[in-house]
Structure formats: C-alpha cells, structure tokens
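To whoever is on call:

I kicked off a structure prediction for a single chain this morning and the downstream step that reads the tokens threw a length-mismatch warning. I double-checked the sequence; it's 528 residues and nothing unusual in it as far as I can see. Pasting both halves so you can look.
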Amino acid sequence: MPYMSQSVTFAVDTVKPAVLPLGEFGLEEALKGRLDAKVMGASHVAARFVQPVDTHPLVAAVHLAFSGHRPLVLSPDILWITIAQGFALHVIRNAEALRFDLVSHGGRMRLSVVRDPAQEALTSDDFWPGVVDEFSAMIQGHSPAMHDLMVCDFSTTGPVERVVSQVVLMDAMREYFDYVVECICGIPTVTLEGTPEDWRKLRDKVGQLPRYGLEVWAKQLLPLCDQFIRASEGNADRAFWRAIYKLHDAYGEQTFNGWIGKLFPFIRNDLTGAYDVPNPMLEPEDSEEGDAADDVVSLSCNRLPTGLSRVPITLEVLTDRGPVKARMALTAGFMGTGQNADTLALRPVPGWVIHEDLGLDAMLRRIQDEHSMAPPLPADRYDAWRWAWGETCGLHANIQQLYAACDGASLFGEGPEAAYLIRPAEELECRAGTRWWNARRPGPGGPEHPRGWTRFCDVGANGFLVFHFKGERGDALPIYWVKSPRDSHAVRVAESLAEFLHRALNSQGRVYFLAPDFSPGERVELTR
C-alpha cells in the first residue's frame, strides 16, 4: 500500500453511488489474462482484485467506476507509472538513436547483484525489492538524469510504488544493460568423522575394486580418497572441497558437476528405467572432449540411484498344516538427510527397514511358487529378443525383467481359461493404426519396429492389458485395460507392473478391476 498522504475528494457526476461490492479473486487470477507464467513471489500475495482481468487495470478501474457508479482513487504514482511505461516503450524502440543521450557505453553492460540464497529466500518479501534497488542505483551511476526522471518520488510513494517504478526504469534501459543476480552457494564447513586410519582403510577397500573389473571407476575414486586422508590429517585442500558439487561458473543449471558425482558408477537409463548407463563423469580426463568449461559433464539428480538396497526374505512360519510363507524385504541404505538441531549441519543418515515385499522380484517369485509359469527363453533367443525390443527401442526395464524370469504365465487357470494370461515374449502385440500386430510377424501395414501401445496380458472375455512401450521416460510403467481390440481408448488399472501383479495375485481368480469397488485411473486414447 502507498504511504498515507494528503488527499482531496470531489464530486464529478450526479449519479447514485453503488452500494454492493464487486466479486473479488486472488493475484494469480488477476494476472491470468496478462501474465503467462507461474508466480513465485509477489508484493501482493494475499490481496484481492476485481474483474476484468485482461484489461489495463487503470482503464479497468475507470470503466468500472464510470459504468457502475463507484468512487475512483488515483495517485501521482499510478499516473506516472503508466506514463513511464509508455516512455520505456519509446526508449526500447529507439535504443540506438537515444544511446549516447542516456549512457556512454556501446552494447550491453553486465550489472550484477550478489545474493546468498542461504540467508535470503528467493521468494521472501525483502529479496527482490533489495535486488531491484541495487540495480536501480547502478543505473543511476551511469544515467543519473534517466534514473531521477523514471523513479517515483512523490509524497504518495511507498516501497512498492518505488520498486515498480525502478523496474520500469530497468525495462527502459534493457538494451543497454544485462541484469544478473549472482547466487553465491557453498558449504561453510565440512566435518570428517573418524580417524585418518579409517580413511586410509576406505582407500584400501577402493583399491580392491579393480579385481572385479572396475579399474576405470577405481582410478577416479582413489584421488578422492587421497584428499579424504589429507583432510582427516588436518590439511584440507579447500579448492578440492569447493568443487564437491557445482563448478562456480555453472550456477543456475539444473544439473551438478562436482566430484561427488563420481561415487556412482551407473545412472538411470531414461528409456528403460534400468540403472545400466555408465556414468559419463568417469570417462578418462584426457579424452578428446578436453576440459573446456562447456565440455564439463553434468548429471541430473533424477538419474541417480535411490540410495536404497533391497533384499527379499521369505519368512516361514511352521504350523501343524505345514509352513506358511510370508514374503518380506529388508531395505537398507540412506533413510534421508538429518539435521543437527544446534549446528544445523546436514548428514546423510544410514538405516534399514523391514517391510512386506511388493516389488517385482517378489511378485515373480510368487507366480513361480503358486501358479503356472513358462521357463524363460533360451539365453540366445532372449538376448536377441531383448536387443530388438530393449536395446534398440527402449522397452521398459520391468518388462525385460518379467521375461528374463519367465516366457509367459497363467494365473488362476491354464492357457486361454486363465483369469490372467501373460503372453510369451515373442507373442507381444503392438498397435499400428487401428489394429494389433505381432511384432515378429507384423504383415503389411504393421509396425517395422516394436513401439507404442503393447498388448502383454489377456483377461479372457474381458479384453486385455497393455502398456505404453516407452512408459514414462524410465519411471514407473502404468498398466491399462482395453476392453476390445476395436476400442480406441484404454483405462489405467495399475500404476506399475508390480502393482498389477500384486492385485492380480490377490484377486482369487477374479478380474480385480471389474469389481464394483475398484476406482479406475485415467482414460487415454490409444492413438497418443
């Protein structure tokens, strides 16, 4: 809100003033017709506004006041901001003609404001007003007359009005300046627990990895271990520790390129979801790419392993009627990141949990124990199938895992009479046009390569189940139900292959997604 100042109110038209308020709504709705972006921070987060939303608010206020018999409030700031925005458009359109009337340099000069996001949140009330004020002061140093002309300095000018006018100034001068906010990030201290002997023992363990075919990885890890030992002895190399995460000239990227990334030998395959892609950070440093800043390899956090290791365990309870099996899993690794209440230091927390095993491994073992499962293809045929479907086309890792364990299965019955009949690997069908084709024998009009929607499980007279060939770029693979080969739509019935198998195995031979209490997911077009 503006500062309180002197004001005058006077009559204009002889009309009866309105007595009912207009409908109001929030900031994002008010901006929707004029700003096509998500709001991250604002001066008026909780304010309420009236319609219309797609008209200049000054004209909208005058229109609503005139047509609805409502009082109108104006200020020098409101009028000057409107005029200054028009002036800014003129300067932008005539930037070169006006250049040396406004600045003394050619091109665009970089103006930088330095901030520490650890001390100030980017969305805090004070962050951006402070940044804008610093940019405004820098412009004043190069063009004092322009600054004094553009910036509001009336008795009605409050902090928000001043910031708005300063942003209009920045807009007018954008052909002469680039505005950069430099976020300084870093780790104030690192504490290494343990003794130097512990860290030397860690190095010895890493030194044994080449025995198992991991020479390249060990070659990258051993220099890191030497730095750990050095730091544990009280002689830390600060430049090394500053490079743990992002290089200082790479800020703003959504990836990281510090040495911490070398601790992971494999990253996620975006097509299949398997962690089978060699980490590009481990390539020899003397490769042809060189070491230019633009060639530094970066990793995306969403391609890293989860930090959890899971071991399936069968719990057998001996009873008078024989052993009763329960499938459990022991998951261990990093439970999360902990924080010291006194120092605020962060520490990855190792831990473990025991839980019911609902993973794909457990479901496949259960099928093998309780139902009819065909043995997997011979190794040479499976490898040829996996190469054709997975290596070249990106078949999801879960489907590859299914057919590595079996070449089809019948749940609750045999063959076509089964409640769920998982097709053999070489009998999968892909959709092309409006038909379903065997990928090995597509025939005229069929697909040249496996792709798109794929039929993998029949449910008798109730249709069949499909997945989309490349899933969700390596994420969980949703399962969909198609009622008839003629249908052009499918309905989601499971979020993953493991969830589908779990539901099917617990269905007692019924098609679980036809139950009255089942809530199906999204309905999608098979042509997408």
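Update from on-call: the warning came from a stale cache, not from the record. Cleared it. Sanity check on the structure: Confidence is low (pLDDT under 50) at residues 248-253, 287-294.
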